[in-house]
């Protein structure tokens, strides 16, 4: 992947946003033979996409990574398999356990650092560049970074021209399709005047990692509390990822606690299931909203990933839903019986939007219902949730169905 000078030869697709979603998409499109340019606004090593957080990939997402040749030995060592998920309600009885048996005998997913995903993408592109021998017959990826998107407009020639700032100078490139993968605050979406629906949950996620006193054995926990869910994900090297969702008004006080005091609060809330936490990394707070785009495509334009949908982390579906956007767009743009394809063809883009509709409805609906149902703070709600968790634990078909929903199949 390159930084400069700019390759101004004909491009098929321009992607605004070179984080996890844009990076995977560019890699997948290159494998299909497309000529791709990425415009990433952040300088190298500063992208918020490849930050300190960890991501839980469903096993379907992990297999998709493998199909894209993004899982090498280094990537595999950087991941921790999820062997079991336990869902509990803090302060009340009841638990639902989901295991490999509910997922056709394979691990429920893999937990991996965002930075490890970025490194896997970079290694794959570097390896490809080293072994490519027929550049005119294969796709290419050009990464311009930092390159800040300014505007775009369609041309009478059947292309879209994108204007951007690169190292303080204004430039323009044209392609046959523009893809917005620039996150929940998408500049492309805003410039396109696409309307979004926003739900403010009044909650903020506090994120860090820690070392538990007891081994996690690959078990992930979803513990529902009065302020929001506490997710504890197994991580490599015996560590865990801690994502504690609280009401906005309580976050400032929690962020001021020193690490030992914060660890004590977590351990008490979690009922000492892992024996306590130590070696906490710095905490970061992320306000939580549900953002959904009402129109995914436009004139030679696709909006996907968090630019199209930003979800609550309660079910761990955010990046997995993004990957299914990538998978489906790449499939829609695939050649028909070897015939040439216009990636910006309106019918193809509409087909992509139609194919994504059901997945959005199911996944966003499930996430939103979980947030609302397990955030109720009324008399008797906790007892009812505990009873439902116990009932669900004894019903394998329901658990199997839940696993299929969160896998996106």
Characterise this structure:
The chain is an alpha+beta fold. It folds into two domains: 13-57 and 64-70 and 114-197 and 289-367, FAD/NAD(P)-binding domain (3-Layer(bba) Sandwich), CATH 3.50.50.60; 81-104 and 202-288 and 377-407, 2-Layer Sandwich (D-Amino Acid Oxidase, Chain A, domain 2), CATH 3.30.9. Helix content is 33%, strand content 30%. The chain contains eleven helices and 21 strands. Strands 5, 6, 13, 14, 15, 16, 17, 18 and 21 form a nine-stranded mixed sheet that branches. α1 (20-31) packs parallel to α4 (114-131) and α8 (318-332) runs antiparallel to α9. The longest helix is centred in the C-terminal third of the chain and has 28 residues, at 346-373. It starts with 12 loop residues before the first strand and ends with a helix.
């Amino acid at each position: 992947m390159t930084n400069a000078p700019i390759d101004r030869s004909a491009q098929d697709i321009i992607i605004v946003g070179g984080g996890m979603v844009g990076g995977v998409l560019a890699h997948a499109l290159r494998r299909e033979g497309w000529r791709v340019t990425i415009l990433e606004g952040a300088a190298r090593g500063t992208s918020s996409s490849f930050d300190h957080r960890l991501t839980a990939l469903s096993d379907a997402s992990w297999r998709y990574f493998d199909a894209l040749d993004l899982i090498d030995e280094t990537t595999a060592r950087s991941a921790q398999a999820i062997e079991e998920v336990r869902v509990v309600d803090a302060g009340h009885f009841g638990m639902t356990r989901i295991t490999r048996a509910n997922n056709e005998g394979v691990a429920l997913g893999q937990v991996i650092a965002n930075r490890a995903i970025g490194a896997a993408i970079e290694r794959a592109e570097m390896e490809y560049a080293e072994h490519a021998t027929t550049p005119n017959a294969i796709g290419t990826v050009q990464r311009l970074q930092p390159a800040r998107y300014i505007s775009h407009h369609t041309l009478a020639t059947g292309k879209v021209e994108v204007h951007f700032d690169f190292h303080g100078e204004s430039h323009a490139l044209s392609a046959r399709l523009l893809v917005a993968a620039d996150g929940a605050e998408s500049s492309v979406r805003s410039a396109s005047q696409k309307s979004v629906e926003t739900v403010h949950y009044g909650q903020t996620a506090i994120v860090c990692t820690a070392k538990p006193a007891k081994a996690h054995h690959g078990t992930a926990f979803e513990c529902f509390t009065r302020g929001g869910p506490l997710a504890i994900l197994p991580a490599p090297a015996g560590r865990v990822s801690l994502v504690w969702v609280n009401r906005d008004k309580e976050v400032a006080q929690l962020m001021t606690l020193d690490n030992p005091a914060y660890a004590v609060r977590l351990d008490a809330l979690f009922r000492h299931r892992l024996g306590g936490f130590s070696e906490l990394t710095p905490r970061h707070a992320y306000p939580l909203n549900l953002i959904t785009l009402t129109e995914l495509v436009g004139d030679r334009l696709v909006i996907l990933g968090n630019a199209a949908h930003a979800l609550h982390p309660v079910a761990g579906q955010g990046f997995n839903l993004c990957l299914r956007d990538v998978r489906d767009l790449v499939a829609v743009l695939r050649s028909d019986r070897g015939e040439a394809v216009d990636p910006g063809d309106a019918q193809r883009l509409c087909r992509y939007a139609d194919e994504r509709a059901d997945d959005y409805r199911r996944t966003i609906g499930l996430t939103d219902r979980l947030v609302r149902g397990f955030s109720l703070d009324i008399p008797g709600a906790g007892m009812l949730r505990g009873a439902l968790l116990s009932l669900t634990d004894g019903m394998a078909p329901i658990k199997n169905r839940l696993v299929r929903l969160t896998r996106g199949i």
